[in-house]
């Protein structure tokens, strides 16, 4: 028993406890922007906001009421841009479009 005790004692004394530093999660602040869609030119501004990591709520009801064709063109352009960059887009019954960058997905 003495030999086994000596061997186990050596193994135990050779073991070292290593403390690993805790990884701190990077806290990323997400901004939610509310923008108004007035015409086709606004798509570039909205795209820039999304590239910066913002979630964008787009008020489109006024354009939808005043010029349905322009509104549909804007939505189609937004869908193409979203597909290109992997963003997510959804419309609401209240007349908003919600567009999120890649890190956020919309639960349907």
Question: What would you note in describing this structure?
Answer:
The chain is of the alpha+beta class and 108 residues long. It has a single domain (29-108), classed as SepF-like protein (Translation Initiation Factor IF3, 2-Layer Sandwich), CATH 3.30.110.150. It is built from four helices and four strands. A four-stranded mixed sheet has the order 1-2-4-3, with helices on one face. Strand 3 (88-91) and strand 4 (96-100) form a beta hairpin. The longest helix has 18 residues, at 68-85. It is elongated. The relative contact order is 0.15.
Task: Summarize the structure in short.
Helix content is 44%, strand content 18%. It is of the alpha+beta class and 108 residues long. The protein has a single domain (29-108), classed as 2-Layer Sandwich (Translation Initiation Factor IF3), CATH 3.30.110.
List the helices and strands and how they pair.
Layout: H1 2-14, E1 32-36, H2 42-51, E2 55-59, H3 61-66, H4 68-85, E3 88-91, E4 96-100
Parallel strand pairs: 1-2
Antiparallel strand pairs: 2-4, 3-4
């Amino acid at each position: 028993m003495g030999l086994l005790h000596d061997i186990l004692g050596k193994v135990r004394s050779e073991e070292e406890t290593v403390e690993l530093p805790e990884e701190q999660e990077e806290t990323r602040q997400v901004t939610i922007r509310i923008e108004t869609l007035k015409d086709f030119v606004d798509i570039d501004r909205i795209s820039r906001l999304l590239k910066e990591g913002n979630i964008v709520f787009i008020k489109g009801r006024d354009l939808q009421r005043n010029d349905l064709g322009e509104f549909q063109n804007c939505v189609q352009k937004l869908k193409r841009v979203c597909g290109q960059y992997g963003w997510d887009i959804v419309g609401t019954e209240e007349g908003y479009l919600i567009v999120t960058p890649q890190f956020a997905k919309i639960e349907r």
